[in-house]
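Subject: Protein record for review, amino acid sequence with backbone structure tokens
Concerning: The relation between a protein's sequence and the shape of its backbone.
How to read it: Take the token row as a discrete description of the fold.
Enclosed: The protein record, placed directly beneath this head.
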Amino acid sequence: MLFSLVIIDIDHFKNINDTYEHPVGDVVLSKMAQLLQSMSRDVDIFARYGGEEFVIILPRSTQENATLTAERYRSTIASTDWGAYKITVSIGVGTVTPEDTDQSILHKADTALYVSKSGGRNRVTHIANLVKS
């Protein structure tokens, strides 16, 4: 079955909690969840994954479609009015291959997320763009 996995991490979320305290952080998480869910298709599987991370499984989504979808999430979040603070996200994407297991596709998307974060944040990285042919 073809699908892509998207991992979304709120950039510098600790600063929000430290500056505005945890109740504001909770509001940001709730608003983020509502925004992501409203942008997702009915067939997509959306969940919170850890503190400030969210995952979305995109069924029948190729590398190209998943990257475009992830970029739409990123740009919409960056342009949303979050009040007194600026919210951006880093996103990692992996598209399943016949060799993948549950763990390997998760690892691929997480590795791509790390590249987005270490590359300056507020960006999308697909694991396929990191693999040398």
Q: What stands out?
A: The CA atoms of residues 73 and 86 lie 15 Å apart.
